[in-house]
């Protein structure tokens, strides 16, 4: 008697794809939201549990899942962890093909001085990154690299990254230990083990990875002056990059000079995601001024970062997504920035409703003449009053409640320390 275990592989693939919903998302989103991270972790765990259970059905299913799903997302934070994984793969049965990995995350990368034996337990080294890229080069779509104290890579590693044919999303960052935070120092490349400053390395990476469509600089804080970035990039134009993700952190300087110079090289950038504190908007003003005429989507953790630029025009802006907003939101929406923009979608997280049972939310519909959709995200728990539904209907605007999704991404897929949309793309 024929049963489900006898289905051909192409049919099994369709079933697994539907059940596991492992997809690469379409946007980058805002960072470090506890509820989003919890949701992402839960989704990852559920998928892994399903894979584990499905593998028990029969050998055919186990082999298929091993190849396509078991290692779809991989994260490494130590030399021993990466080395043990490589050893495990080397011992796999010869009948099994090499598994696929689309999101590779290598953190705690040691880039300075010798790699001492004691680092094996809590740091990775260039060899780990190189070996993993070589192994999964044909399937990697998203790559997340975080270095310890100083971000720099050998040219051989940069060339490896540039040779990944399907790489679309790149996230780079620096994890500073307590005693080593430096800013704006001048380093002779001759004393740097890789011979590249952090700004030079960033420029080389961008030139090498020509297929990138999304770039995440959330945790990238160059030690060397970022002003040289424009010179390092030269006349290059990165026409495929459409999304950029940044973060303003408390007591931390965002390298705005370098980012503004980078922005001039991104003629097709349309989506900007900014996380972090809302009281540091003045720091972001040069970036907004540089990109305002081309941005179509803004994804913000805190609406207050817009205060310094509310009088500017954003002629292409169609989508605004907010995590943190306040009762004076209507004053923001009446400002020239939005009154003169073709804004079609306003997406609001319901966190303010959770914190205050009846927050005052006023949407100036007459000012937002192009508005066609109002979204409330994470609408479980304290659901916004039906008053907003009625108000939207009276103004010809679609009102949508999304109970389990985040304001940054309707189709959110998992992240773990990255940030929703982008994080979903870079899942782990």
Describe the fold and architecture:
The structure is a single chain. The chain has helices spanning 9-20, 34-55, 59-68, 79-90, 126-136, 155-162, 198-208, 229-233, 256-263, 281-291, 329-333, 336-339, 351-355, 386-394, 420-425; strands at 73-76, 103-110, 142-148, 169-175, 214-219, 243-248, 271-276, 297-302, 319-324, 345-349, 373-377, 398-402. The chain has 428 residues and is α/β, with parallel strands linked by helices. Among the domains are: 12-69; 310-405. It has a 12-stranded parallel β-sheet. Helix 6 packs parallel to helix 7 (198-208). The longest helix is centred in the N-terminal third of the chain and has 22 residues, at 34-55. The chain starts with 8 loop residues before the first helix and ends with a helix. The model is unreliable at 22-38 and 405-428 (pLDDT under 50).
Assembly state: single chain
- Provide the gyration radius in Å: 23 Å
The general outline is globular
> Percent helix among the residues?
25-40%
Order of helices and strands: HHHEHEHEHEHEHEHEHEEHHEHEHEH
Instruction: Give the biggest sheet.
Output: 12 strands, parallel
Report the sheet-strand fraction: 15-25%
Q: Give me the secondary-structure category.
A: alpha/beta
**Largest sheet: spatial strand order:** 1-2-3-4-5-6-7-8-9-10-11-12
Number of strands: 12
Provide mean pLDDT, rounded.
80
Gap from first CA to last CA: 40 Å
Total helices: the number is: 15
Protein name: F-box domain-containing protein
